[in-house]
Amino acid sequence: MSKGQLIAFEGIDGTGKSTQIKLLADYLRAQGREVVETREPTDSSYGRRIRELYVNRSTCTPEEELELFIQDRRLHVQELIAPALATGSVVLTDRYYYSTAAYQGASGLEPAEILARNNFAPKPDLVILLTMPPELSAERIRIGRGEQPNAFEQLDALRKTAAIFAAFTDSCICRVDATQSVSAVHEQIQHVWNELSKNAPC
Ligand code: TYD
To answer: What's the Cα-to-Cα distance from 85 to each of 141, 145, 168, rounded to whole Å?
Structure first.
């Protein structure tokens, strides 16, 4: 039994996951909790190979791409997530297996099969799924970050990805409207965390 809690932040690109992770991490540390902030893809050799795909996705098949994300997660779980949970930390991860189901699902693989291939990974206690229309997300990537969208971020792909995220029904998933202000989103996430802590005191 793990002593800590695992919270995954999910959603299409440009929804503000990393900003919200930082705010929640500060809030939890102020409450005296040990917090580990992490992200996927990681910096492992698999993660580096995945980043090469941002530039040219056609260098591997959808199945090979899926395998890279899964191998990257295996290492992430073994080396960081499981040990941190065992010592009672709250682990906040920027993306987890719902991203794989949604993004690689958008490339034509079956989301349910993708989830089944992740059964080695600990189930999150909470998934904060930040929601936003894909058109707005694409706009934020282009204008807000001054970046050209990468291969995973093209509008058409984002639309498919958002539709798969929208179809998940797991009870650990809590949807938060990411079109609100940063502080409004943070307050809502704080509230969700406080409710979770009441039901399963930590
Ligand atoms: P992102 O969160 O943007 O990471 P970074 O800020 O380090 O670039 O994730 C990179 C992209 O990878 C993003 O567009 C979603 C995609 N992705 C998948 O396609 N499958 C996955 O399993 C994960 C974790 C990410």
So the answer is: 33, 33, 25
